[in-house]
Amino acid sequence: MNRLTKIAAITLTAIGLSGCGDGTGTARYVIDPPASTQFTGDQLGATELKEVSLPDYAAADELSWQGTDGAVRSSTKILWADNPERAFTITLARAISEISGGSVVPEPWPFPSPPQHRLDVRVEQALAANDGYFRLKGRYFVAAEGGGAGSHHTRVFDIAVPVDQDNPQAVANAASVAITMLAEQIAALGGPGTTIVATVPGGGDPYADLPPLF
């Protein structure tokens, strides 16, 4: 039996015996990315980060892990301390800002003037896998505001952090480290992918071909 499964079973038994209903049998773990030692310089400026899209198992309240049989498992007594998508989004925005010196803010954008860029992170895998690594894989997209002139980027990330998947706190720590590593990659606009440089026809002046008003 996997140790996480054992923990869940022991916890459920203890609650059943105590009958207290005081919540002490539920363990909650925090997503808290460690500070990075990198500083990339500001390549994003003022950027709005859309809520990070996670797979269903990673967006659930329960902390998930992959068993030796390949199945993704969880326990209602081993939980994240906050909504995972919210926590991932807020901490990623903070980490990118600290690394780049820019202003990356989770949506909705709180200021009257629009952001310079919009950042969309789509996670395909966020899991303590049965190979001994926490896997964070997916793509991110950086678009210039308005979809007009400017650089638009699409990049792939594939991050692996060693993890003791039998230890829930270790899983939470590995997930937090993976977010810091993703923030470092995004701040540098790193990773395989493409960059599209969009220009405005007419030498950069969108009004160049219009007749004078008088």
Topology:
Elements: H1 3-18, E1 27-29, E2 46-49, H2 56-59, E3 62-66, E4 72-80, H3 84-100, E5 103-106, E6 117-128, E7 133-144, E8 150-162, H4 168-187, E9 193-198
Parallel strand pairs: 1-4, 2-5, 2-6
Antiparallel strand pairs: 3-4, 6-7, 7-8, 8-9
Q: What is this entry, summarized?
A:
With 214 residues, this protein is an alpha/beta fold. 27% of the residues lie in helices and 32% in strands.
Task: Write up this protein.
The protein contains four helices and nine strands, in the order αββαββαββββαβ. The protein has helices at 3-18, 56-59, 84-100, 168-187, and strands spanning 27-29, 46-49, 62-66, 72-80, 103-106, 117-128, 133-144, 150-162, 193-198. A hairpin with a 4-residue loop joins strand 6 and strand 7 (133-144). Residues 7-22 and 203-214 have low confidence and may be disordered.
Q: What is the radius of gyration computed over CA atoms, rounded to a whole number of angstroms?
A: 21 Å
What would you say the CATH architecture is?
3-Layer(aba) Sandwich
Distance between the termini: 83 Å
One letter per element, helices H and strands E, the order comes to HEEHEEHEEEEHE
Shape: elongated
**Helical fraction:** 25-40%
What oligomeric state do the depicted chains represent? Answer: single chain
Low-confidence sequence ranges: 7-22, 203-214
- Report the sheet-strand fraction: 25-35%
Number of helices: 4
Mean pLDDT: 85
